[in-house]
């Protein structure tokens, strides 16, 4: 068994040989940051990869993110090192159920969070991220919106718009398990600290937050705030990433671990590069329709 440093060296050598780019989501294990070409949030990573001339994208994240990378870079080979890297939130959006709800609300636009499968994106009018969801819902002409799959993010969006938002009953168990009582205890111990929370957290948490944003907005908030201390409410990996990116400030985490995210390891990345697996493919028709929903989001945001 090779040690971590040897595995990192091997991954970097293979990456060069294969003209690959390695994308690492903020929630990954800290050792993955050292082999990354880009570290970031789900959509930002795919956008970066599309700009490169790499032949291969290795996505250290979860499947819906690798599918998004494929939709934005159909000519590149996209690899997902871990077969366990699914997402229970994305799996809660079922195409047949969406087709039924669309029929029941013919005037509603379907706004799907990027945490969805390629198939769901292809059935959507427009996609959104946790950062731009409110803006997207406000930008589309429809007065009625089917928002999926996250009910907490959907409720947050509904609280910021006059439009009718039809919520989907999906949730991310990593965020939804966090409660206000425990957060209050941490805040009591660190009264000066500002709370930043991911909008997949429950309403009771969001009401306590000084700043609500996706993983891509957290370092920006910490850098621009006059505060020195922050309580980070999201998946645990984010706090590690913030400590590296903003070393002059203090971060306390109120978090849970996402086992899907943490299933990617250095040996699996090396294996992915050697054997070029596991390749993520998306049928051409789905790529075209999903791309339209993603492009519309980019146009509005
Ligand atoms: P971001 O899009 O903010 O990176 O979040 C991804 C995710 O999986 C949230 O749970
Ligand atoms: Fe899915 Fe939640 Fe894990 Fe993000 S943190 S990948 S939404 S299960």
Blueprint of the fold:
Elements: H1 4-17, E1 20-25, H2 30-33, E2 38-40, H3 42-51, E3 56-60, H4 63-72, E4 77-79, H5 88-91, H6 95-104, E5 109-113, H7 118-122, E6 126-128, H8 133-139, E7 144-148, H9 151-159, E8 164-167, H10 173-176, H11 180-189, E9 194-197, H12 203-206, E10 211-212, H13 218-224, E11 229-235, H14 237-245, E12 250-256, H15 266-275, H16 284-300
Parallel strand pairs: 1-2, 1-3, 3-4, 5-6, 5-7, 7-8, 9-10, 9-11, 11-12
The protein binds 1,3-dihydroxyacetonephosphate (13P) and iron/sulfur cluster (SF4).
Report on the structure:
The chain is an alpha/beta fold and 301 residues long. It has three domains: 4-83 and 261-281, Rossmann fold (3-Layer(aba) Sandwich), CATH 3.40.50.10800; 89-171 and 285-300, NadA-like (Rossmann fold, 3-Layer(aba) Sandwich); 178-254, 3-Layer(aba) Sandwich (Rossmann fold). Helices cover 45% and strands 18% of the residues. It is built from 16 helices and twelve strands. It has helices at residues 4-17, 30-33, 42-51, 63-72, 88-91, 95-104, 118-122, 133-139, 151-159, 173-176, 180-189, 203-206, 218-224, 237-245, 266-275, 284-300; strands spanning 20-25, 38-40, 56-60, 77-79, 109-113, 126-128, 144-148, 164-167, 194-197, 211-212, 229-235, 250-256. α9 links the parallel β7 (144-148) and β8 (164-167). α1 runs parallel beside α15 and α3 runs parallel beside α4. The longest helix has 17 residues, at 284-300. The mean pLDDT is 97. The structure holds 1,3-dihydroxyacetonephosphate (13P) and iron/sulfur cluster. Iron/sulfur cluster (SF4) binds at residues 62, 87-89, 115, 172, 174, 235, 258, 260-261.
